[in-house]
Design goal:
By secondary structure, the chain is α/β, with parallel strands linked by helices. It has two helices and eight strands, in the order βαββββαβββ.
């Protein structure tokens, strides 16, 4: 394989403004919202010179539905899982799994429910 397997991700939302505020607050990024008629997308920032994939918050009445137990689990990178999980609760989400070590070589993870009801994960090396 020439690249890492993930090229893009999409997180279903029911309220774009609420989801945008939630992710900007916990990750400290700016999300740009683009209205494409029936589809609304909130693009996470992307730097093509850095490793990893970017993605989008996505709203569509028929094709996207948040889930707290089904579907793909996306791991978002952060500097340290523990303080980021603290921001999740302050931003209106719910922590499901506090910071725990995956292994010494793979770092740490934590699980949460976002403002839209999606089950998501965080990953950090420390």
């Amino acid at each position: 394989m020439e690249n890492n397997p993930v090229g893009w991700f999409e997180i279903p939302v029911t309220d774009m403004d609420r989801a945008k505020k939630f992710y900007e607050q916990i990750l400290g990024v700016e999300i740009s919202v683009h209205d494409m008629h029936e589809l609304k997308m909130g693009w996470f920032p992307m730097d093509p010179g850095k490793p990893g994939a970017s993605g989008s918050l996505v709203y569509h009445k028929e094709f996207y539905e948040p889930s707290d137990s089904k579907g793909v689990l996306i791991y978002l990178n952060c500097g340290d899982v523990e303080p980021t999980l603290e921001l999740v609760e302050k931003a209106g989400g719910k922590v499901l799994q506090p910071k725990k070590q995956i292994s010494p070589e793979h770092g740490y993870m934590g699980l949460f429910i976002d403002s839209e009801g999606n089950r998501m994960a965080l990953h950090s090396r420390r």
